[in-house]
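COURSE: Structural Biology Practicum
ASSIGNMENT: Worksheet 4, Part C
STUDENT ID: 0417
INSTRUCTIONS: Below are two proteins. For each, the amino acid sequence is given first, followed by its structure token string. Answer the questions at the end about the second protein only.

PROTEIN I
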Amino acid sequence: MADQFAEVDKLRETLLGLEESADRHLEDINRQDILTRIETVIQTVVTSVSKGEAPVLSVMNRSSWTNVMFHESVGLVLKPDASVVTLRSDWPSSATKFALILKVLSVIYKLVQSDSYATKRDIYYNDPQLFGSQKTVDSIVDDISCMLKVPRRSLHVLATSKGLISGDLCYLEGDGTMVDCRSSTTAVPVSSNVNGINHIVSSAKFILIVEKDATFQRLLDDDFCTRLSPCIIITGKGVPDVNSRLMVRKLWDTLHVPVFALVDADPHGIEIMCIYKYGSVSMAFEACSLTVPSVLWLGLLPSDIQRYRIPEEALIPFSQADERKINSLRRRPYITCQPTWENEIKAMQRLKQKAEIQSLASIAPRFLTRVYLPNKLRYGCWI
């Protein structure tokens, strides 16, 4: 297995080189720097008001592919000349978001000033009628992080994690709490303060990202983390939250072991895997701390459908939404640069059928944990 991961070490060296300058910059972002950046924004608003002008805010357009570029060693990163969206306080279409950004900025200012922390959920429930939904708060916090050019963790705003982790792993939380993930029956929620984790201890030979909670629970029930070799399994329960992505990245940086992905053989499963590996457009401004470019596609590969003769009744026909998604994937730079991945996606498109990981149970109830994964890992059947 060591020979097959020689490229991973080379990739890590490149990535670390890119991050050194970013790390030096982030070290300089202390509490006073953050307060100063917020004060500068507010000062601009106050100055406009004093002149009788309608104040405006400029936020990065975090939903446009034209604002990101692809770097093989990092993933999707924000362009230096990325376009911005202007929020005017006197325009009905943007006045509400303008006001909400100022509201959240005031909350963040108080948190940083007092050196205290709050979750995004805390902010929402402070005035649920004002914000309308948790999603609104989540988006505004990310907009502010991007606008101030400050990592979200430095804003003293934490996110409640939805991910789970289990396996050969122990660590200390930022508050000194010892966390032991070695239970064979229950999983541990991913920390809401991943950057505060330290003293990581593990003998894991690899990390396995699992797309779905149901599959994760199956691996847990079958004691997968100790049956084959010591390992760590983690799930973001579908599209991963930032904390799940941060956790995978922190473990990769610390343990220097291979990272595999186990996802459904469908367009959405592939996209979820790509978020862990290459990041997302909306969080491209934090790519260096979220992506793991060495992630390997372990399964379920579209070619596995015929290789393992998964019964026809266990397969699902493509929908129009699947067709649109797979066409979108094929146009993305991180797919076009990987011929083996692109070939698998083409095979899926020709087949016009998809398969969930659970479809392997139609071959045998424990086929996934007793045959499929052991063989994949033993014989290097990943791409």
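PROTEIN II
(use this one for the questions)
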Amino acid sequence: MANPVQLMNRLFLLACAPFLGGLLWLFTMQTNVAVPQLHSSLAGGGNAAGTGIGGISAKLEQAQDAAGQTKSVIEKFYQMYEQSSVVTAELLKTAALQAARPAAVYDMRVTAKLGTPIKQASSGNIELKLFNLDGDRYNGYALKVNLKTDKAMKMVLGKDKLGSSETTLDAARRYGAVAGVNAGGFADDNTGRYPLNTTVLAGKYLTGFFPSRNDETFIGISTSRKLIGGKFSKQEDLDKLSPAFGSTFVPVLLKGGVKQPIPAQWQTSPARAARTVVGNYKHDQLLFIVTDGYDESGNSGATLAELQDKMVSLGIKDAYNLDGGGSSTLVWEGQVINRPSDGKLRPLATHYLFFR
């Protein structure tokens, strides 16, 4: 079966055939326009002059007829060209719709697995759909995100200052974002709250590159609006993925739809918790999952293994764990959707925001 590109090429050649045929005929047709030669003869007398004038008139009429025929050919040529252009445009439009159809069908299938959206927003920049997500032992939410332009999503610092922090709700309200999710981990010292290790903001390394250690994982979005992530020992390896922004946490959950080993510490400390994870589908749309946890004791919420299973069942390709526990936050239209396990929102160093 021909792929969409081959189909479009064939349709284009079919539509252009009349135009090409007309062009070939125009170049090969023989249209001779004779230029009359004028002869004057003083000795020929009036009859000779009359005969010469009559011959010239006949030649001019022939030239006019030939010019008229050439004009007619050119007009017909352009009519064919305009008709072919209209047909070609319609065929290319149809081919583009057919080429986009498999992606639309796939999107309908993955959305159907999530159920009916409880909230949604759409614009030229972004399409957002929010779903309830209930497991056997946890409750949560799924935010499906289609990034249409570079303006759809960004990562911001707490109060836009390194070392500062604020809640995801405050950051979303300050920026006028339609939705927001907590981002990477952080480390505190006596001067403030700082993003954990490798952090990219607006395409630049905020505090330098830090080789991955202890299962640390960089999670971000590339300049082509694709989810990127993993462990990196050298900056040039991460640079090849063209990160636009991103943060660091632990661990990698899925690669190519295959569950990755969960570090022992993250299987038990805590076993259950409020979680925030992010994954992507094969058509590069994103899925953020945020689960509730009622406290920090480890007895409520979801395990990472449960979320791996859930994402595999939803058709997720790659997935990563973001900061969880009291940091897990999902904001929609200026309201907190999930139930923070601290009992209140935690001020954070980094946030992912989404814009109409």
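ANSWER KEY EXCERPT:
Q1: The chain has a mean pLDDT of 87.
Q2: The chain is about 35% helix and 25% strand.
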